[in-house]
Structure formats: C-alpha cells, structure tokens
Amino acid sequence: MQIAQITCINKGDRDSRYTCIAREGGKGWSISRQACIDYINNKEWRFYVEVAGDKVWVEVIKREGREYIKTENDGDMPNNLLSLPECSS
Prior knowledge:
- By secondary structure, the protein is mostly beta strands.
- The protein contains 1 helix and 7 strands, in the order ββββαβββ.
- The chain has a 4-stranded mixed beta sheet. The chain has a 3-stranded antiparallel beta sheet with strand order 2-3-4.
- The protein is globular and about 30 Å long.
- The termini are far apart.
- The relative contact order is 0.26.
C-alpha cells in the first residue's frame, strides 16, 4: 500500500458547507475526490494530512448514500481537509 500526504484541495465554493471537495493533491500530484475514495476503498493508497506534526489519516464515510472523505477524529475542531490551501492548476 502506498502512502501520500494531502497538502491542498480544490472546492468549488470554499465557504459552503454543502459543496464537497472536488480534488486533493500533494507535491506534484492531484486526483479527483472519487479517485481518492476508490484508492482508499481498494486499499491501494492511504492518505493523510499533517496537523501539528502528526499524521491524521483520511477515511471514507457514507452519508445519504454518497461517499465522502474526511480525516479521522483527532480532537481538533477545525476541519483538517477544508483548512488546506487551494491546489494550483
């Protein structure tokens, strides 16, 4: 299994609670949310976000029949993924 750090995201409306993340990326790479979900579900890749020097793992959850990604509960209030900067084109 490969491991990669997510350091940026793309979201159509960053301020909307109802718009999901469209893409995630890291140094030299960017993938769609669905590709990230598929990689995690197929146990091909494992993704994490670094928070205060610690790895916080990304997981897939299902709500209202749709799959989303989020970080596991690390006790911090801010959303670890949504707090990341925008990925450049």
